[in-house]
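Notes to self after the Tuesday call (sharing in case useful).
The group wants a holo model before anyone commits to mutagenesis around the pocket. I volunteered. Ligand is magnesium ion. Logging inputs and output together so the record is complete.
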Amino acid sequence: MRSPELSVVIPVYNERETLPELIERCLAACRTTGRSFELILVDDGSRDGSRELIGQAASRHNEVFGVILNRNYGQHAAVFAGLEQSKGSMVITLDADLQNPPEEIPRLVAEMAKGVDVVGTVRENRQDSFFRKSASALINHLVRKTTGVMMHDYGCMLRGYSRSVVNAMLQCRESSTFIPILANGFAASTAEIPVKHAPRETGKSKYSVFKLISLQFDLLTSMSTYPLRLLSFTGALVAASGIGFGIFLMVLRFLYGARWAAEGVFTLFAILFVFIGAQFIGLGLLGEYIGRIYNDVRGRPRYFIQDIYGKEKQGNDG
Ligand code: UDP
Ligand code: MG
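Result:
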């Protein structure tokens, strides 16, 4: 049975241009740690030949394994597939696009060697669009508030997890998850280190605005039912102010007579729209949770592993 000390898990979705450099730099970085390691590349249904490149790398390097998913399941599902196959006592995840420099791996390993369960990273001078950065800032703030775990940057996937946290995560059956938050729920100790961040040099971000929104929903609903509570709270607030306003209108009606009240019809419309809006937000959020419950009740697998490149190497060590 192979039992390396370190597993590096990388989700790959149409990253043909960066893959060769990524693999070289990762291997070099892992070798400098002086520990036994494995590099697990998860192909998330790429259509650009990334899969073939992974296959070549797996046959060329003893440390490289390829986990091939039959279609695109999304970044976090892909990472999960990689975690499931990983054997290392420390597991590091990073992106395939070289925005997270693989040269940071030894620093993460050094931090994990101190016995920390989860090592997060903070991107110094983050190289993303203003829109992405401000959306991230808002989400990070929300997550800190609701989970109570102080971490600065949840979006950065360059992270280290101990074997116990990985095992705990693998036991979670919910289908839409956000790995960094899930991990923090099981971590006894966490640490953060600053890392460099590079702009994406080739290819486009694999996240469209629509995919980003869906990711934020995953993030929000995966951490707690807090949004539901917030919802009833807002509902109560809106209702209370509605009643207050109703009384106010009635008083004016008695003071100024019926003619005034008729003109107030439009005000009432305005208020009505506020209510309708609040109701729709509420319904939408409820629907979001129910949809997730439906998904989890069906209990379909999060992904389907079609093939594992390098399986035959399982016997020898490393
Ligand atoms: N990714 C994936 N499946 C997807 C989308 C992305 O495996 O459906 C991978 C992608 O190959 C990359 C990582 O997830 O390794 C992050 O994607 P990207 O760089 O496009 O995200 P961004 O940096 O824009 O957040
Ligand atoms: Mg990226």
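Two things stood out.
The mean pLDDT is 85.
The chain has eleven helices and eight strands.
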